[in-house]
């Protein structure tokens, strides 16, 4: 029994020596790095990131739908009110009309806004419909490029990912935009 107690004491001393040696060489523990171990904090960051990506994905869908509508109107042989009206009415995303409404895209720390005027309103005022639609297409393309840049810089955590850090494959999201 005495031998067992001595053995336990020596193991405890050895453990203390190892800890002191590690502390001597590694220095004080950075408490900010321990913040990464907080699973509740991680879960909140992941939830926020997922919400941002979902919003960006929906925004890409709305922009692509608006882009297709503008392109179809430009391809019309005759810019009649009936032909344009049908395409304007179909230009909806998730039940929301895309012409004459502001698309607000949250990119984390900034908000991107885009508003395409209704081709029907432009026809009735005699404005140069083709030039305005071309300008809208340029704005849509710029918005998609801005989203692409924002997505390529997204990170859930500031530290490089480890085996325990959730990963995000931004290439999969960027592939959605290649058709633009």
Key phrases:
FliS_cochap_sf, 4 strands, rod-shaped, FliS_cochap, Arylsulfatase, C-terminal domain, mainly alpha, two-stranded antiparallel sheet, about 180 residues, 7 helices, HPt domain-containing protein
Q: What can you tell me about this protein's structure?
A:
- There is one protein chain.
- This protein has 180 residues and is mainly alpha-helical.
- It has a domain at 50-155: Flagellar FLiS export co-chaperone, HP1076 (Arylsulfatase, C-terminal domain, 2-Layer Sandwich), CATH 3.30.1120.
- It has seven helices and four strands, in the order H-H-H-H-E-E-E-E-H-H-H.
- It has helices at residues 2-26, 31-34, 39-75, 81-90, 119-125, 129-152, 170-175, and strands at residues 92-93, 96-97, 102-106, 111-115.
- The strands form two sheets. It has a two-stranded antiparallel sheet with strand order 1-2. It has a two-stranded antiparallel sheet with strand order 3-4.
- Helix 3 packs antiparallel against helix 6 (129-152).
- It is rod-shaped.
- The model has no long low-confidence stretch (mean pLDDT 77).
Question: What is the structure about, briefly put?
Answer:
The chain has 180 residues and is mostly helical. It has helices at 2-26, 31-34, 39-75, 81-90, 119-125, 129-152, 170-175, and strands spanning 92-93, 96-97, 102-106, 111-115. The radius of gyration is 28 Å and the shape is rod-shaped.
